[in-house]
């Protein structure tokens, strides 16, 4: 706050305090010509009378003491613009002290899991419960409280991972975030194959997870266009590339919806998905706990089997 604004605030505070003092003094003083306390001639309903009695002296003195306390309070805690109070107290300092104390308690709670492997943490029910709490507070906004995601937000309960599903890959995703970009191909494809080019590519992409569609006319036309444009990221067989976040097109999982219109929208206009980095916000240990919880959703404790297939609700 600039000095000019500080003086403006100081003037307002001083005027308000002086105004309160003047008002108390003015209203507590009787003057010549004032009616007697019992003689105002204001009556209602025959027996209700308005009197002109001043407040008791002890009450008025209490107000003066309150104003004096206000002056001391303002000078001690600060209330004069940008100038610190004599006691050097500030809400920011109070918050910093409280945060430091809370962080110390949290560090003590999380210390046993520092640097531990994700899959090892996931075997500890107490750690998984901590990770779930961290997930609910920070991740559920996008992925949902059940972690089943929504359109544009991955389902974390299945076995499909665009950036890799190993413990370390999941931890990297949580710590440093991910940014997946699907370019706009509508104009390019239209130039290569006409107005039906995007629909043809959609038909071919669908045939990768449903071979019965592979002989459709549009799918055959789409394969040529796919080979010329899409293989760089998704591969010749459509298996994707986890290093780029390019999804596997053979698994029938569609992050942005599985209708012809939604897939066509992804191809023609592109997509830009961002997973924020949580390293600075949560720190490494809390990120490990959250990642361990996510990993545990598809790897239940004590299970040596492959993770369950995605539920229909997750294929969005």
TrEMBL record:
Signal peptide: none annotated. Binds 2 heme C groups per subunit. Its main location: membrane. The chain crosses the membrane at residues 6-26, 58-78. The keyword RNA-binding does not apply. The keyword Transmembrane helix applies. SUPFAM superfamilies: Cytochrome c (SSF46626). Its cofactor is heme c. It is found in: Cell inner membrane. Pathway: Energy metabolism; oxidative phosphorylation. Residues 126-209, 217-298 form the Cytochrome c domain. Keywords: Cell inner membrane, Cell membrane, Electron transport, Heme, Hydrogen ion transport, Ion transport, Iron, Membrane, Metal-binding, Oxidoreductase, Repeat, Respiratory chain, Transmembrane, Transmembrane helix, Transport. C-type cytochrome. Part of the cbb3-type cytochrome c oxidase complex. Belongs to the CcoP / FixP family. Component of the cbb3-type cytochrome c oxidase. NCBIfam families: ccoP. This is Cbb3-type cytochrome c oxidase subunit. It comes from Luteimonas notoginsengisoli. The gene is ccoP.
């Amino acid at each position: 706050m600039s000095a000019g604004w500080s003086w403006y605030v100081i003037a307002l505070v001083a005027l308000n305090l002086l105004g309160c003092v003047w008002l108390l003094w003015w209203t507590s003083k009787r003057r010549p010509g004032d009616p007697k306390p019992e003689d105002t001639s204001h009556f209602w309903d025959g027996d209700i009378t308005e009197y002109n009695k001043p407040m008791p002296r002890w009450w008025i003195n209490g107000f003066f003491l309150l104003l004096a306390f206000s002056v001391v309070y303002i000078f001690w805690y600060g209330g004069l613009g940008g100038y610190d109070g004599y006691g050097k107290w500030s809400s920011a300092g109070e918050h910093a002290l409280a945060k430091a104390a809370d962080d110390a308690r949290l560090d003590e709670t999380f210390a046993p899991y520092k640097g531990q492997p994700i899959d090892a943490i996931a075997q500890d029910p107490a750690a998984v419960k901590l990770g779930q709490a961290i997930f609910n507070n920070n991740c559920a906004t996008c992925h949902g409280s059940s972690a089943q995601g929504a359109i544009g937000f991955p389902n974390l309960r299945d076995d499909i991972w665009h950036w890799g599903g190993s413990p370390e890959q999941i931890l990297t995703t949580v710590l440093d975030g991910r940014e997946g970009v699907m370019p706009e191909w509508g104009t390019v494809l239209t130039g290569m194959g006409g107005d039906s080019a995007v629909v043809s590519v959609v038909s071919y992409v669908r045939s990768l997870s449903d071979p019965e569609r592979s002989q459709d006319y549009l799918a055959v036309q789409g394969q040529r266009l796919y080979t010329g444009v899409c293989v760089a990221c998704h591969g010749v067989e459509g298996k994707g590339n986890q290093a780029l976040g390019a999804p596997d097109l053979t698994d029938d999982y569609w992050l942005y919806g599985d209708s012809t219109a939604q897939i066509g929208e992804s191809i023609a206009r592109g997509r830009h998905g961002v997973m924020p980095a949580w390293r600075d916000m949560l720190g490494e240990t809390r990120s490990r706990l959250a990642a361990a919880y996510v990993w545990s959703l598809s790897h239940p404790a004590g299970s040596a089997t492959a993770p369950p297939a995605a539920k229909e609700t997750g294929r969005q």
